[in-house]
Amino acid sequence: MSAEKTVLAVLGTRPEAIKLSPLVLAGKQRKQFDFLVCNTGQHRQMSDQVLDLFGLQADFDLDVMRAEQTLTGITVDILTRMQDCLDRCRPDWVVVQGDTTTSFAAALAAFYRKIPVAHVEAGLRTGNIYAPWPEEMNRRLVSELATLHFPPTQSAAENLLREGIAPDRMLVTGNTGIDALKGLVKRLADDAMLRDRAANLLNAAGLKTGSWSQGRPYVLVTCHRRESFGAGLEAICTAVLRLANRFPGYDFIYPVHPNPRVRETVNRLLATGIANVQLIEPLEYLPFVRLMAEAELILTDSGGVQEEAPSLGKRVVVLRDETERTEGLETGLIRLAGTDPEKVVGFALDALEGRWPLADSADVYGDGRASERIIDAIAAHSSL
């Protein structure tokens, strides 16, 4: 390649920051690229924390986060503010990740400028445009806009092939989130100061020390998706209460998402004085990985946790009716419960009473080298 290529990675949420940080770091090691970062600020504090953990700073900040922001408002703000960002850096490529409103709006803004888009974590599908909502439609639309597609698994690639994406425009890479996870787990093992930092952040979030540092077992709970708002989240909280009463020797640790609708429901139903239910503040990625790595069981609606848990050998009850990450189900470490309290409680009982045995860790979503493969593919395509 004769000239340096400018690549703009656009992120705005914590999962995007986690999954794009190792890619940006890999890109910055290549002399043929000028790798820049744009943070839309869709989830301001959480994305900034992740970038700091990986030693990165945003080169452009769109600052779109607002109280009670709507999907329409976020989309309009990102589209409008991306114009100035693209004018200033004039990228040869725009890289987006996954299925957020940030990824869709940034890809559309790049398309309007005829800038090629590389889509990381492409091809995930449930087949239901309302589950997850709006993510399923976001990622379908990004697939229409992208030039290069990087599905994390073969099944994701097959989804793209069925939709008419040419094989020479895609590469199965593994998931960059596993790159981030493996790197951080190694850092935690090697660095006592980093372990202390994680412990201090857990304490600052309100976690009682005995829950995780003195051998007391715990179940980790996360739930934040829009399709669970209302009755679904109430049902999940009911299941957690039943489990907490059934297992007083376990703590149930729930880092509560900052969304006001989530916090109102969770606080109303779970902040009832039960000693072994701990509602704590949202966690940065570093302490969350430490909690996840030591949990007996995880209850979650998070896509990222579904990917990470098999690599850690953790059992997961998925609080969604459908999942686009079907490979995890095949490991025996993940079971799909939806928001039905009976299923959630039943699967948790299987795990905590010994009927759902632990399995070996399984790297079904990647070997930690996805970022290098993506950088190689962008470099090869840029030289054509």
TrEMBL record:
It is an enzyme of class 5 (isomerase). One of its GO terms (molecular function) is UDP-N-acetylglucosamine 2-epimerase activity. CDD domains: GTB_UDP-GlcNAc_2-Epimerase (cd03786). Gene3D superfamilies: Glycogen Phosphorylase B. Its EC number is 5.1.3.14. Keywords: Isomerase. It catalyses: UDP-N-acetyl-alpha-D-glucosamine = UDP-N-acetyl-alpha-D-mannosamine. Belongs to the UDP-N-acetylglucosamine 2-epimerase family. This is UDP-N-acetylglucosamine 2-epimerase (non-hydrolyzing). It comes from Methylomonas koyamae.
